[in-house]
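Whiteboard transcription, Tuesday session. T.W. wrote the structure tokens on the left side:
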């Protein structure tokens, strides 16, 4: 039986691995701040601010190319001073910046149609107020070059800090996300965040929403984003190993602020509190969470999660009314088996570390950052030799 202190010289087919001794309780949390630039990427997680190329796309009529040089935003209807504003004039307005998590209303349970971006643009209500809102106006209609249209009520514009976004993650909004102008409505689904906006019309009555037309399926666009959660890893049909320290992680969003997240592996009989690993001190922005879990039995395992908002709303077990967004508990099914140590030695990449509490040597999978158990260890004393079982016979 070889001691842990000599493991640095053991060679396997994947190369030479180094041992790092870390206590089980060693973890880093990144508490809330209000500046997205201060965020640090977490191993295994997606970027907290979704890169532009990874942001979800869902369109009714494909991409629409608008010439920025010739673009004019028309402001019409019940407005005292109708206007046509160029892109240069819009960019000269006072800019405000918001980081928002937006989900597609059609996103399936644990789906990928969501993202978080930092948007910069002008306050729509302030612009309309400057131009003179006439008496009796109840809502504004946003008309888009692809034939889509949606709305905000005057009360929403006054109270919800809705912006006409010109920039996404510090770049002019790309064509596929609605260049040159996209409306950002905090706390609502993407169906209320139209791009390629060419006209803002102030109205007191009339059809105000694309989905209100009878020939289309009637999504309930009045509904705010429901409190929801997503599991990033493990992935569906992943294999976990008996007795290994498994990271379960994901995001929670949909409420103005998230207060807690929990995970269950027994269909809701018991719940494991998650640690909030990363967040921003801003409204309507997701949080990243994580749970340490050790599988105790071999077989199929169903992992589910639920979020609770600061307003007391709890994510429901089931949600059958999909036309206002679906937010049932996400589910990931995985398989737990006894580890094949000889196969693991051949295939694993990454450094080892020792979990003092659970007395186990782990290797970190370089692609998924999951921690794979390689051997059980017993320390003779706190500072001396740690002997290996199974791993280095």
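and on the right, the sequence the group agreed on:
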């Amino acid at each position: 039986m070889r001691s842990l202190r000599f493991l640095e010289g053991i060679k396997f087919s994947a190369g030479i691995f180094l041992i790092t001794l870390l206590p089980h309780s060693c973890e880093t949390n990144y508490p809330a701040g209000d500046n997205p630039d201060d965020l640090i990427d977490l191993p295994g997680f997606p970027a907290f601010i979704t890169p532009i190329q990874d942001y979800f796309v869902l369109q009714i009529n494909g991409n629409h190319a608008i010439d920025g040089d010739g673009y004019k935003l028309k402001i019409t209807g019940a407005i005292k001073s109708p206007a046509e504003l160029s892109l240069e004039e819009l960019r000269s307005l006072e800019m405000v910046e918001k980081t928002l998590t937006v989900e597609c209303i059609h996103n399936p349970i644990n789906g990928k149609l969501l993202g978080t971006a930092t948007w910069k643009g002008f306050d729509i209500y302030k612009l309309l107020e400057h131009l003179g809102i006439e008496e009796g106006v109840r809502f504004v209609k946003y008309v888009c070059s692809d034939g889509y249209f949606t709305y905000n009520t005057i009360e929403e514009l006054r109270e919800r800090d809705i912006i006409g976004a010109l920039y996404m993650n510090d770049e002019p909004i790309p064509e596929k996300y609605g260049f040159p102008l996209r409306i950002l409505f905090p706390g609502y689904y993407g169906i209320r965040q139209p791009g390629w906006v060419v006209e803002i019309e102030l109205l007191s009555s009339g059809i105000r929403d694309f989905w209100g037309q009878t020939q289309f399926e009637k999504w309930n666009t009045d509904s705010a984003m429901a409190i929801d959660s997503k599991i990033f890893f493990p992935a569906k049909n992943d294999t976990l190993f008996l007795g290994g320290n498994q990271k379960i992680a994901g995001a929670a969003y949909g409420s103005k602020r998230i207060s807690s997240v929990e995970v269950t592996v027994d269909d809701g009989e018991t719940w494991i509190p998650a640690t909030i690993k990363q967040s921003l001190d801003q409204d309507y922005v997701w949080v990243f969470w994580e749970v340490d879990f050790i599988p105790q039995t071999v077989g199929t395992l169903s992992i589910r999660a639920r979020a609770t908002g600061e307003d007391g709303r709890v994510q429901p077990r089931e949600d059958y009314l999909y036309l206002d967004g679906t937010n049932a508990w996400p589910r990931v099914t995985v398989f737990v088996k006894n580890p094949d140590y000889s196969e693991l030695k051949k295939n694993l990449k990454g450094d080892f570390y020792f979990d003092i509490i659970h007395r186990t040597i782990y290797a970190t999978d370089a692609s998924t950052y999951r921690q794979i158990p390689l051997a059980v260890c017993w320390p003779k004393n706190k500072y001396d030799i740690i002997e290996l079982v199974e791993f280095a016979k």
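Someone added at the bottom: Residues 1-27, 376-393 have pLDDT under 50 and may be disordered.
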